[in-house]
Structure formats: C-alpha cells, structure tokens
Amino acid sequence: MFGPEGPTLRELAVQALSSVEHGYDLLAPKFDRTPFRTPDVVLDSVAKALTPLGPFRDGLDLCCGTGAGTQLLTGLCRRSVTGVDFSAGMLDVARRRVPAAGGPGVAWVRGDARALPFTAAFDLVVSFGAFGHFLPRELPGLFAQVRSVLRPGGRFAFPVFAPPRPAQPGFWTLLGFDAVMRVRNALWRPPFVMYYRTFRLSTVLGELERAGLTAGLGVLPGFGRRADGSPRARLVVARRADAAPLGGQPAAGRVNS
C-alpha cells in the first residue's frame, strides 16, 4: 500500500476527506497497486463460473473502476462490453489498460449506478467490490436499475466473501474501519460512503428477489471453507424474471440452474 508505486498515507488521507467521486479521481493513477483492486484470482474464478452460462452478447461492468471486470467481460461477451463508473479518473485509467481491439467492442460511460443511462441492452451485468459505496436503503433502487438494463433472461453476477468471525483479527479491523468512517461522515462533508459490514447476503438476496431478479448461489472453488464447512467465497447470479417484481423470499438455486 505504501510502497514506492502505491499511494502514500497522505494521499489516502486526502482521498478519504474528499467526496467518493473526487477521492477516486485522485486515487485512480495508483489504484491498481492497492489492495482495493479485485485480485486476479477472484476475477479468474468468476469468469470460469460464468462461462458455462454463456455465450453472452453484451455485457456491463457496473462501477467498473479501472476496468478489471470489464476486461473479464471481453472474454465472455461476443458483441460489446461497457464499463460504467462515476469517476472520470478511473475511466481514464481503464481506457488505457483494457484492449479495445481483437474482441468485442468496448465502451466507457461516466454515470451513476443509481441512475443508469441505458435501456434493456445487456445479457450480463457484473460488479466487483463496489457495494460498500451504497447504503442499505439504496439497494432496492440499485437492483431495480440493474433489472431495467438487463434483457429478459439476462443475469447479474457478483462474488461475495464470508465475513470474518469475531475471534479473527479481520473482524475487528473491518469493525474499526466502519466506525472511523461513520465518525468521519458525521463530522465532515461531503460524505465518503465506504462501509465493509453493511452488505449482508440474506438481505441482498431478498432485495434482488423484490427487484424481480431470481437469485441463485454458487460456490467459487479455490478459496476453501470455514471451520463450519461453509464456503469462503460464493457467486451470486440473479436472473431477470419476465414478470414484474412481486416481492417474496429468495429462491434457492445454483449458478448453473
């Protein structure tokens, strides 16, 4: 994080005291050299799990950042791939790092995930590491937006990782981070929304169903299991239902159902 190519402590502090958008504009040139960038092992595992569900024509990387997920989509989609993010700085980096030739057409759009500037134009929407920037009350609107840009039968996929147990140091690290961010946002404007412990799987599955997306869960291999036998990493794949949202409970399912 504080190596010669990564951001300095001062740069991270300036980012944290900015808005989310401006903070990522500042971090963008060094973002890929931080732990915040989704690791390749996660991207590769998700790509492998999604391949049997294709082929897909058009894909969208929601909150694409510097384009790691967008590049994944170029191997899954035949016609077009779009990355959308509200940080102009992150999009500038993405344009330089993701090849635009030799595969599907690649487009970059500056936009807000809560008000997507698309019609039902995609067969696959993916997102990596972005949900901490949305408050729990924003999930219904976010998932409704995702449904609106999916074609009937289209899929919305994203990985989720089991949270650490209270006996593990990581639990207290994340708890402390969220506490610091809450204090920061209570005392400083504009707010910087980034919380690690608000994206609860049971709540997410319920909100997906209420948005008209039939949610299924699969296991991402290679990340092991916890002491109770539950997987450390899962892939949520939610499919757009043909009918309008009806509410109800999450449906059990498999990624390849």
Which outline best applies? globular
Q: Which residue ranges are poorly predicted, with pLDDT under 50 across at least 5 consecutive positions?
A: 246-257
Which range best describes the helical content: under 10%, 10-25%, 25-40%, 40-55%, 55-70% or over 70%?
25-40%
Question: Structural class given helices, strands, pairing?
Answer: alpha/beta
Q: Roughly how many Å is the radius of gyration?
A: 18 Å
Q: How many beta-strand segments?
A: 7
Total number of helical segments?
8
Strand order of the largest sheet: 3-2-1-4-5-7-6
Provide the β-strand percentage band: 15-25%
Estimate the mean pLDDT confidence.
87
Measured between the Cα atoms of the first and last residue, the distance is: 40 Å
- In N-to-C order, the SSE pattern is HHHEHEHEEHEHHEE
Largest sheet, described in full?
Answer: 7 strands, mixed
